[in-house]
Amino acid sequence: MGLLTLVEDRPTPPSVYNWRVYVLAMIASCGSNMIGYTSAFIGTTVTLDSFRSEFGIDKLTTAESSLISENIVSLFIAGAFFGAIFTYILSHYFGRKVCLCVASAIYAVGAGLQCGATSKTGLGILYAGRVLSGLGTGVASNIIPIYLSELAPPAIRGRLVGLYELGWQIGGVLGFWIN
């Protein structure tokens, strides 16, 4: 018996362990890239000279500048908090896949708003984008592990749910690398 050999108490047909289970798990785990990426890139973005001059943050006092930076970072967390709460209702009535699609759409709108924020549109658009991307991330980070555990046969459940963490870390690496 090898190190990675799995023993089941009730035999599962080999057809359950086909490539489809792994592909679906990898696709669903891509949603965890959202939280890793968004958490990684924002910390350095708010300190960039180009960002600070675009929004006039460089002309503010240290206290005012810190408040804006704190708001930009914390609005994402607030959105994620409410997104995680909203997940139960959404997944209970519409299912896991619809929940993941809604989370992705909300996140995409939030990311678009963040990309479109300029000195002309002001920080309000950036704040709204952070809240929306937080909502999408909160929903996704709550539902992806549940979806993966429901999708996976018992013998490979831990391996497939572990893909969630892998996706999170890949998103973090990409966020730091891109920035």
UniProtKB/TrEMBL annotation:
<dbReference type="InterPro" id="IPR003663">
    <property type="entry name" value="Sugar/inositol_transpt"/>
</dbReference>
<dbReference type="InterPro" id="IPR050360">
    <property type="entry name" value="MFS_Sugar_Transporters"/>
</dbReference>
<keyword id="KW-0812">Transmembrane</keyword>
<dbReference type="InterPro" id="IPR036259">
    <property type="entry name" value="MFS_trans_sf"/>
</dbReference>
<dbReference type="Pfam" id="PF00083">
    <property type="entry name" value="Sugar_tr"/>
</dbReference>
<comment type="similarity">
    <text>Belongs to the major facilitator superfamily. Sugar transporter (TC 2.A.1.1) family.</text>
</comment>
<dbReference type="GO" id="GO:0005351">
    <property type="term" value="F:carbohydrate:proton symporter activity"/>
</dbReference>
<dbReference type="InterPro" id="IPR020846">
    <property type="entry name" value="MFS_dom"/>
</dbReference>
<dbReference type="GO" id="GO:0016020">
    <property type="term" value="C:membrane"/>
</dbReference>
<feature type="domain" description="Major facilitator superfamily (MFS) profile">
    <location>
        <begin position="24"/>
        <end position="179"/>
    </location>
</feature>
<dbReference type="InterPro" id="IPR005828">
    <property type="entry name" value="MFS_sugar_transport-like"/>
</dbReference>
<dbReference type="InterPro" id="IPR005829">
    <property type="entry name" value="Sugar_transporter_CS"/>
</dbReference>
<feature type="transmembrane region" description="Helical">
    <location>
        <begin position="21"/>
        <end position="42"/>
    </location>
</feature>
<keyword id="KW-0813">Transport</keyword>
<keyword id="KW-0472">Membrane</keyword>
<protein>
    <recommendedName>
        <fullName>Quinate transporter</fullName>
    </recommendedName>
</protein>
<keyword id="KW-0672">Quinate metabolism</keyword>
<keyword id="KW-1133">Transmembrane helix</keyword>
<feature type="transmembrane region" description="Helical">
    <location>
        <begin position="72"/>
        <end position="91"/>
    </location>
</feature>
